[in-house]
Amino acid sequence: MVEESELEPRCVSVEAHVMSRIVFVSKSVWCHYRVTIRAHRMDWTVPANVIKKRKPIRRKEQKSYLSPLEVLKEFSQESTFHGLRYITRDSATIFDRLCWIAATLICAVVGVVFVISAWDNFSKVPIIVNVETTNYPLYKLPFPAITICPAVNVKKTLGENLLSRYMNRTLDDHLQERFRHVLSGLSVFQFPFYYRVGPHFNLVNDLLQQLNSFTVSEFMLQVLPRCHEVFKECFWTGNRVNCCNVFHLQRTEAGFCYSFNSMTSEITRNCSANDHFFSDGETKDWGKEQGCSPRHNIASGSATGLEVFLEKIPEWDSLGEGQIDPNGARIMIHHPKAPPESGKSIYMPEKIASTFAVKISPVVTECSPEVRGLDMSIRNCMFPDEHHIKYFKTYTLQGCLIECRMNWLISKCRCHPYFYDFEQANLRVYNPPPGYQKLNSENASAVLNCSDCLPPCHDNTFLVDYDMVPDTDPTTKESTGHIDVFYKEMGAIKYRRERAFTLMQLIGKIPEEYRRELQKCCLFQCVLLLSVSFGGIMGLFLGVSLLSGIEVIYYVIRICRAIYMHTVIQRGRKQEPATVRFLVPNNKVSGFKALSLLSPIEPNYTNRRLVNN
Fold first, then answer.
1. CA distances from residue 392 to 249, 266, 331, 399 in whole angstroms, order as listed
2. Given the DSSP bridges, would you call strands 145-150 and 354-367 parallel, antiparallel or unpaired?
3. Are strands 127-137 and 255-260 parallel, antiparallel or unpaired?
4. How far apart are CA 3 and CA 316, in angstroms?
5. Which end of the chain is more exposed for a tag (fewer CB within 10 A), N or C?
6. Does 28 have pLDDT greater than 80?
7. Whether pTM exceeds 0.70
C-alpha cells in the first residue's frame, strides 16, 4: 500500500506534466496557424545562383526614381501656372481636358501678343513727356535775351569814304556805284541769304582783287551804326535805363547786332561756363562775375518787361535795295545762354505811332535721372556734360548748329564769315586756295550734316507771339519803332521727360550715386521692364509671377536628372545576371505540412521537465 503522503507529490508531478503538454500543444497549434498564414502570403523563390554567391544590391539601385513623364505630371499638378492642373487631373474626362487645353492656349497666345506690343512700345517710345505744371514760377527763369539787328547794318556814306581812302582813289559817281555793290554784298552776307552775295560781287570782281589785305571784320564794325544811333530810349520793368549800358555788341549769323540780357555778347561771352538753364530761385549760381547774371522778371503784361524806342537812321546812309530789309529792324528772342539764330528772326517794319508787341510764353523741359540710362540716340537729347562746343561756353542746340555750319564752310572754301572770326582774327578778303568747292554747287546742301547736334535734355525755350498795335504815346510818335517785350502769362509750362517703364519709386532709399549706376546698367533696366510690363501681362492671363520662372527652372533640372537616372538604371539592368524563380502555389500548403517543418519533440522531454521542476 502506498501511503497517501507518498502519492501526493507524484500526483502533483503528473498534473504538472499534463499542463506542460497542454501548453506545448497550444504553442504548436499557434505555430501551425502562423505558418499556414505565412505560407499563403509567401512567394517562394529559389535564385539560380544558389551555388554562386550573388553580389549585394547597391543602395542607389534600391531607391526609386520618377520617370520624366511623372515629373511633368507633378509639375502640372503643383505648378503656379493656371489651367495646367485641370489638364492632367486623373478624374478629368476628355471633354474637360480639351476645354482646359483650349483655354490655356488662348490665354498664352493673347499674353504673348500683349508682351510683343509692350516691347514694341518700349523700343519705339521709351520716353514719355508729361505736363508737370502749367504755373511754373517766372522768378525761377531768366528773362529771354533780346537781340536787335537794324536793317541798315552798313552806313553807306561812311563805307564809301573808308573804301576810297583805303584804295587811295577819288570818289566819283562811277566809283561810288561800284563801292555800293561792295557794301551791298557785305550787307546781305547773312544766313540764310548767302546766295544774294553773288550778284553784287560778280559785278566788281576786279575791284575785290585790290582788297586782299582789307580787314573785313574791322571794316564792318566801323560802318555799323553806333548804339546811340540805333536806340532812342529804353525801359526795363517800367524804369528808364541807359540803352548803351544794357545793350551790348553781339555776333550773329546776320552780322554784328546789339543784345539785351545775353551771356554770349562780346562783353559777357568770357564769363565762366554754367550749364543751368533754369536756376530754381538761386540766381547767384549763374555767375559770380559782375554782369554775368541774366535779369529776371516776375510780372506779365504790357510795359512790364523791356521797352525799346528806335531812332531814325538817315536815308542817305541806307543802301535801299542793296540790303536785306528796306527799313526797321529784325528781332531775335533766345535764351541768355544761347546765341541768337538769324533764321528765326522777326522783322519789324518802320511804322509811326505803333507798338510792336512781342508776347513771351516760357516753356521748361526737365528730364528725370532715369533718362540718362538710355542711349543718346534713343532719348534724342544731351546732358550738359556729354558734349562741348568750341565757340561757346555752354552747350546749346543753337550754338552746336552754328558751329556745325562754320565747320562746313571752312571745309568747303577754307574760309569762314567775318562775324565768327574766332579761329582767325581780323579776317581779310582773299581768294580761296585751289581745290575749294563753290557754295552754290548742287551737292552743297547734301553735304551739310549736323545730326550730332541734339537739344539739351534740360531746356528752356520761349514761344513768341507778336503783333503791331496802335499807340498814342508821344515818344512812340517821335520814334520809328516801339518794341515792347513782356511775359504773356503769370506762369510757365513745365514738361517732364521720364522713362516709360521704371520702378525708381521702389528704390528711393538707395543713395543717388548708386542709383545712377543702376540706371546705367542695361540688365537692371531689362529687369524693370520685365517686372512692370511683362510680369503684369502674364500674371493677368496665366497667373504667373517671378517665382514661376524659378519653378520652371527647377522642374527642368528635375526632368534632366530623371532622364539621366532612367538611362543609367536601364543600362545597369542589362548587365545583371538572369535569375530563375521557382514558385510554390500559395494555396497548396496545408497546416499539417507546415507543422512538419517544425523540429520533432525529444522522447525524454517530459522526464527532463519533471526533474527540472
1. 16, 12, 21, 7
2. unpaired
3. unpaired
4. 183
5. N
6. no
7. no
